[in-house]
Amino acid sequence: MNTRRTMIARRAMTAVAITTGLVLTVAGCGGGGGGDEEKPDTNSKSTPSAKGEGKDDEPQKPEAEQALAEAKGDGVTLVITSAKRDGGGFLTVSGKVTNSSGGLWTGGQWRGDEKELQKNGGSVAGASLVDGQGKKRYLVLRDTSGRCLCTKFEGGLDSGQTVDWFAQFPAPPEGTDKVTFQVGSMPPAPIEISEGE
Q: Could you tell me the superkingdom of the organism this chain comes from (predicted)?
């Protein structure tokens, strides 16, 4: 089990490196900057364990991230804890997914129907954001090889297992602060966008 977690962590770090490279490339092409703002956002996912620093005498309980939305279906519970607009024109949505199916869950139904997305395997590649006010739909960003800028559930999730996930989208225009997250046959989850740091 430890080897599997190590492999998942390595894959997540690889995804972060690819994402950072893509953001820097896009920022260089668009002249909008923002590549440095992407790093803190992805690192913030690993900071909850470090929040206990500062008080010497009391043992700190890890703070539970407040959920923006929760949806149940496809044999899993999806929790969205963050939807941050980054300076480079991206919106990063993240949270946790828990397998409540009683068996192995692979995430294959979340990868999307497009032929290009099939090589992503079990992933959040088929997710979208719907801006009801602007009447627009935003799909998960992809690199030049067609790989999504999102979590891939390689090896699947065992029953009861919870993992972190993320997906990056083009950011809706300024002033749009409410969108609906959709993936697979999960019920739509309305979320509120916050500004990145």
A: Bacteria
| pLDDT at residue 34, rounded to an integer | 44
User: Largest Cα–Cα distance of the chain, in whole Å?
Assistant: 56
Total domains, the chain:
1
Residue 184 in tokens? 């697979």
- Taking the whole predicted model, whether its pTM rises above 0.70 is answered as no
CA–CA separation, 145 and 117 (whole Å): 10
In sequence order, which residues have a C-beta less than 8 Å from that of residue 120 and are 6 or more positions away? 111, 112, 146, 147, 148, 150, 152
Distance between terminal CA atoms of the chain?
35
- DSSP code for 121: -
| 3 state SS of 136 | strand
Measured CA to CA, the distance from residue 194 to residue 197 in angstroms comes to 9
